[in-house]
Amino acid sequence: MNARRDVEPVRPAPRPAGRDGDARNTNATAWDGRQPGTGPLESGSPEVGPVETVAARLTVRDILGLDFVATWGPEVVAGAAHLDRPVRWLHVAEAADVSVMLTGGEMVLTTGLLLADDERVQTDYIESMRRADVAAVVLGLGRAFRTTPEAMRRAAERCGVPLIILHRPAPFVRLTEEVHSRLLHGRFATLDLSDRIRSSLTALNLSGATLQQLLDEIACYGGCPVVLVNLAQRVLASAGDKASLSELLRDWDRVSRQVAELAGSGPVTVEPDGWIVVSLEARGRQWGRLVFFGYAGSDEFGLVLGTRAAEALAMHRLLGDRDHGWEAQAAEALLLDLASGSARPEQLFTRVRAAGLPVNRRTFVPLVVRLLADGPGETEYDGVPELIERAVSEVPEVAGLVARIGEEGTAALLSIPYGEDSDAAMCRVALRIGESLNARGRRAVLGAGFACSMLDEVRRSFVEAVHVADAAVAAPPAGPVARLGDVRLRGLVRLLRDDPELQAFIERELGPLLRDPSLLGVLRTYMETGRNKSLAAQALHVSRPTFYRRLQRIEALLGIDLEDWERLTSLYVALLAHEGQRGTGP
Q: How far apart are CA 357 and CA 346, in angstroms?
């Protein structure tokens, strides 16, 4: 893909003041490449080269900085404070009423043949240039004027029109060809960049790329960090340099206020310091913003980049899962990072806070919700995360981040004020979740991890919550939520289910039965009924003699006596471990 991967994500210094800049200098100065009141500028205008360095916009200052222009002895005699005006076109004219042929933004080149010997005409000429909104007037000395006409200089200073005097003969055609070539090349480069960005992002969308992949590509084109937020300034996703993002999110409260102030002036707002704020819309409704921090390219390229990024994100939203929106995806990605420990704690801290979850002086408790299958289709998770989120919000002192984790689970990270009874608060949330699910005709088990005072402990607590919920599916607790102590031996083998030693133990204890699932079911029923042979036969819908023969078959295959308590206990643990390996948790 055509991405700007070689651009460092730096925050450039503010660009020079524009057309209405407030710098003032009424003294005539020979042009030496310096802005009034500043140090020396880089010589030369943008050279034709890679699309990243070619601008479609030239200013009066850029044109005066061309090497061959310096040989003509340019001198800025008036309007030096307005040299950063953009030049749209060059126009060579000797007519006194040339302003009627202008549309604004032109640099007018003249020798002043029709202006000589009449100061009133000279003054009127400059005033007409102001009304036509020209970028500058360039007067070549030699044919009509030997020195700077004072009337024109005074009028230009009063009107704020840059007046440049050329002291040596100048072929205007060469300047016109060079500037027009640069302007046209820059505009072509902008169109080319626009086409490349659109093609790249559209291909990603059509290939089913995730939101994060799309943002990564946008950040590569921008060469700077990008942050996607909703209208409440909650961070949904980000991309770019991790260190820069961490700095931004650490001070997100202040940064988000600045973003809100910049938004609203148009679909794409390009700021002088490299911030680009893009309003995101779909179906005529605004739903978020994309912000570039420290874009180092030109305003024209920034505008193109912001526009194409908005189009791509709108397409992604329209093509995506409407029931699993970006807010849900953002919560899911954050919870997965917390549960997996794939990000450093200091990065998680800033991300969690930017996502809207309180983090200062809080206790964190992970919850995992597993639906119980009471019939076909009963474990469908459509709408469950939203229902759980509403249930959490009904407990005033608790904040929560809720997301679907995999296909078979929903997780919630509860944030409870420090000093509050976290266990009691978590139980109130669990009760509300259970009531909300029951009202929809659904049953579930909830597994809770241990309370954490620091985010870097959340990963271990999440692992515990997942295993507790998985183990509790087979034996739901009497209370609203299961903890590690409630699942006892079943919970222990669930925690150890991936241990090679436990897998070897299962093979040793149950080996022959693993190849005969019917006999394994007989043993399981025998254990679950408390070794009551009559109840077990009824549960399996077979006669007692048939059930006895099957037990004898198990004893023969395993070479054990089912009346041996120690061997029976080993079989029971192996059965629990086998069920734990077969179970699929979130």
A: 15
Is the pLDDT at 189 greater than 80? The verdict is no
141-175 burial string, b = 16+ CB within 10 Å, else e?
A: beebbeebbebbbbbbbebebbbbbbeeebebeeb
| Encoded tokens for 254 | 């202040």
- pLDDT tens, position by position, 134-156: 889 998 888 788 888 888 899 99
Q: Tell which residue, 317, 256, 265, 326, has the closest CA to residue 291.
A: 256
Q: Six-digit token pair at 229?
A: 């937020």
Sheet containing strand 29-30, strands side by side: 29-30, 74-78, 163-166, 136-140, 106-110, 89-92
**Residue 265: band (very low, low, confident or very high) from pLDDT cuts 50, 70, 90:** low
User: Which DSSP helix (H) or strand (E) runs through 63?
Assistant: helix 60-64
Tell me the pLDDT tens digit for each residue of 344-368: 656 666 667 766 677 778 888 888 8
DSSP string, 307-359: HHHHHHHHHHHHHS-TTS-HHHHHHHHHHHHHHHT-S-HHHHHHHHHHTT---
Spatial distance between the Cα atoms of 207 and 194, rounded to a whole number of angstroms = 20
Q: In 170-327, at which residue ranges do the beta strands (DSSP E only) sit? A: 226-230, 235-239, 268-270, 276-282, 285-292
Q: Scanning the structure block, which residue is given the tokens 């006596």?
A: 561
Query: Which of 119, 166, 117, 116 is CA-nearest to residue 138?
Result: 166
Are 572 and 492 in contact, with CB atoms under 8 Å apart? Answer: no
For the chain, helix (H) and strand (E) counts, in that order, are 20, 17
Least confident of 16-20, 204-208, 238-242, 314-318: 16-20
